[in-house]
Design goal:
GO terms for molecular function: hydrolase activity. The protein is mainly α and 279 residues long. Helices cover 72% and strands 4% of the residues. The protein is elongated, with a radius of gyration of 22 Å.
């Protein structure tokens, strides 16, 4: 196929637009968003792209004039808004889902949107903010209680007052950003992506997301306990490294590793059986 013929293929135009939107969103995330949000963005964009790659031959690329116009308008608005950003904005979390809607309309029209429900679900999961969840239920006191209990079991003279974890030489406040919702959402989204990618039984569809929630809470609780120890017994630089710097990514990677280990042990090593039980 010649280069000119390639340019005439709609799927290559769609691929280019999708790659451009993804690159813009990730670049802005990298520049303005917190580190954990950047990691989640990369994870979910990659997961959605993988699902598209696995099923692209089954998609019906058939869009009408109205759907194409609407999709193009959505893409144009995304580009316009992205060009005006100069700080972190909730739009960066909404952008992947809105971009997915626009691309799906361009590719398959309104009637074909349901073909992409898995990819749109994954991208839409990125839109859930910890602030929204905290308004529904604030788990900061539970996180403080778990971290204090962990330190107490390890033999440290720790006390707790609400969301404050106190040691003799220092204390920390478990505010909303350290509640654990970020870690929980990241692992929960990863567990859902796993369910989309691998055959599982009904029971596995229940306990894998449940395990993700529990692991996210526990890993974050361990991180908060470490923060308390660093405030009490270490330097400010060490605290900032593990709280804001690259050290925070280690806990994120540790959570992903534990969930991956859990999925391998209970799912992947028995994949032939899963295929027979729940194809």
């Amino acid at each position: 196929m010649s280069f000119v013929q390639t340019l005439q293929e709609p799927k290559y135009w769609l691929l280019g637009i999708a790659a451009g939107l993804m690159t813009i969103n990730i670049t802005l995330m990298w520049k303005y968003a917190p580190v954990d949000v950047v990691g989640t963005s990369l994870l979910f964009w990659g997961g959605a792209a993988f699902l598209i790659w696995e099923r692209y031959q089954s998609f019906k690329l058939q869009s009408g004039p109205i759907s194409s116009l609407l999709g193009a308008a959505i893409v144009a608005l995304i580009l316009l808004k992205s060009a005006t950003l100069n700080s972190y904005d909730i739009f960066l979390r909404l952008s992947p889902f809105i971009s997915g809607i626009g691309l799906a309309l361009l590719a398959s029209g309104i009637k074909g949107l349901r073909q992409y429900w898995q990819e749109l679900f994954i991208l839409g999961f990125m839109s859930i903010s910890t602030g929204l969840l905290l308004r529904i239920f604030d788990i900061s006191p539970l996180t403080a209680k778990f971290s204090a209990l962990l330190l107490w079991y390890l033999g440290f003279p720790v006390t707790r007052q609400g969301i404050y974890v106190n040691l003799p030489t220092g204390s920390i406040e478990v505010y909303s950003g350290c509640s654990g919702y970020s870690a929980i959402l990241q692992l929960l989204g990863l567990s859902i992506l796993f369910l989309f990618m691998f055959p599982t039984t009904v029971k596995q569809k229940i306990y894998i997301p449940l395990a993700a929630i529990i692991l996210g809470f526990i890993v974050n609780g361990i991180r908060v306990a470490l923060m308390a120890l660093l405030v009490a017994y270490s330097t400010k630089e060490s605290f900032e490294y593990w709280h804001y710097g690259d050290g925070s990514l280690i806990f994120s990677m540790f959570g992903v590793f534990l969930l991956g280990l859990f999925c391998w042990f209970f799912i992947l090593r028995n994949e032939p059986e899963n295929l027979k039980i729940d194809p």
